[in-house]
Amino acid sequence: MQKLIITACICGAEVTKEHNPAVPYTVEEIAREAKSAYDAGASIIHLHVREDDGTPTQSAKRFKECIDAILKVCPDVIIQPSTGGAVGMTNDERLEPITLNPEMATLDCGTCNFGGDEIFINTENMIIDFAQKMNARGIKPEVECFDKGMIDTAIRMNKKGIIPSPMHFDFVLGVNGGISAEARDLVFMVGSIPPGNTWTAAGIGRAQFPIAAQAIIMGGHVRVGFEDNVFIEKGVQAKSNGELVAKAVRLANELGRPIATPAEAREILGLPQK
Ligand code: KMH
Ligand code: ZN
What we know:
By secondary structure, the protein is α/β, with parallel strands linked by helices.
């Protein structure tokens, strides 16, 4: 089995300091949370950024400030900006961080309900446009799938050469509107991708660590962090993203999966070394 890549989704666009006061908004807080995750064993930071008051933004300027601050304290970490942003943002807004030419960025492969009245829109033409713009800049997409049909969309686009091989998938399980987060769901998602591709799994809320454990056993990779879950155990807020990463590392240690460094993660994902 490959070494385990841990992605830390440190901030998100929906979670707030009301959910957990350690959720980062300022540049300093984002760098602090990235460092806590990196020190604990994360090799990828999945990045959303905020204004100081917590408003989600896709501003390239704000992303640059945050990326520079993160790289000062985590010099070799892989930074993966979101192109999902927050529900309701325009396509141009969502694409702003790719102008910084990050190594990776997310590519959301379908539309889904996102709880309440929210709809996270990713039409087929949007996916094609986002993928082509990432390809032109040599950015590796992380293919975000909130449901099985999104995997099929990605496979179709891969066959047409729009999403390059090998693909790296992120299966997000447990969003209200996407696939649920039962063990059978992850087995189904993983069984739906062609061989030769890699995958990570993210469980939302209380599913974070059960899905992490299952992904570790199945040979996939793991995403944890405040974007998906703010609790270290039932009713106990995590003090930092690092605390969540450390728990994933403990699970991996118990289950015999060594943790990938950023250089090893680049090798597994086919990214050029830094
Ligand atoms: N905040 C969600 C609407 C991504 O990062 O690409 C979208 C999201 C997915 O978080
Ligand atoms: Zn995200």
